[in-house]
């Protein structure tokens, strides 16, 4: 499991998803620069101290942020209003990337649930 696997995943993704997810990757790494990048459940993920703290995926018509927990989204309250979501994924249009401050809050919420510090 390595950065190369995430690179390979992104290489298979078409535009504009690829650019959007590459930016999301950089935003996640800005919060957890030492995270191990890997593939989990066939999607890129970021591991800190052996625990997945974030992930993402590309779909035909949208991109998704994956917190790998059903407890993250409720912790952000109304910050996620306007986004389509399931218990385990936050959907957004490829031409409307998630704001970096929201990504920071999502990653930090998951780390807090795990008892980790960014």
- Counting structural domains, the number is 1
CATH class: Alpha Beta
Number of strands: 6
CATH architecture: Alpha-Beta Complex
Uncertain spans? none
Indicate the structural class: alpha+beta
Mean pLDDT across the residues is: 95
Basic shape: globular
Which assembly state applies to the chains in this document? single chain
The largest beta-sheet arranges its strands as 1-2-3-4-6-5
Characterization of this structure:
The protein has helices spanning 3-11, 17-31, 72-75, 100-114; strands at residues 36-40, 43-48, 51-58, 63-66, 84-85, 90-92. It is α+β, with helices and mostly antiparallel strands. It is globular and about 35 Å long. The chain starts with a helix and ends with a helix. The chain has 4 helices and 6 strands, in the order ααββββαββα. It has a single domain, classed as Aspartate Aminotransferase, domain 1 (Alpha-Beta Complex), CATH 3.90.1150. Helix content is 36%, strand content 24%. It has a 6-stranded antiparallel β-sheet. Strand 1 (36-40) and strand 2 (43-48) form a beta hairpin.
